[in-house]
Amino acid sequence: MRRAALLLAVLAACAFAGTARADGDPASDYLLGTQVFIPFDLKLPAAKQAELTSIVRDANKSGYAIRVAVIASAYDLGAVTSLWRKPRQYAQFLAAEIQFIYKRRLLIVMPNGFGFNWPKHPGTKEYAALSTIPIGTSADGMLESAVTAVQKLATASGVKIVRAQTPATSKSGSHDRLFIVLAAVAGLALAVLLRLALRRKRP
Predict the structure, then answer these.
(1) CA 123 to chain centre
(2) Strand, coil or helix: what is 116?
(3) pTM of the model
(4) Gap between the Cα atoms of 123 and 135, Å rounded
(5) Of all residues in the chain, what percent are helix, strand and coil, respectively (each to 5)?
(6) What is the pLDDT of residues 64-112, one digit of tens each?
């Protein structure tokens, strides 16, 4: 089962990577089916990545809809490297790319700052909250800053994030994580196929 899941994930990642590079930025494809984009080449402990993923998941479950993209290098922008170190402009660009699936809050984390976009909302309050958060220069620091940002943004909007309890590690837990991975890959595949289908319909 694990080998099958790994093979499926690798094949999906290869397919999506090709699509992402051809059509622009990788995050615009991954955020169609997931709540967080973390570059695969960003060397981070699994626990750090899980911390960001869980806080974003819990924020959404608590009523604060948000998706997050961590952009650690120009390479992570695919074909739109001109937006490197321009988090605010990239937030607008990415929001437009995924708006046919997702039209709520979007947070961008780059080494030099945050970007935020929520269509038809000024974002003034959000940028005021983000201005108080320093961004670490390391990969770990960027993820820690992203976690803090999600928490502060939710608080600024009057939403208390209810954290889900982390289940104890067990064989059943491992099986559950396996099915979650498979479900996430399948959902991402459907989202990308939908996007390609919609693009073919455009004049």
Answers:
(1) 19
(2) strand
(3) 0.74
(4) 19
(5) 60, 10, 35
(6) 999 999 999 999 999 999 999 999 999 999 999 999 999 999 999 999 9
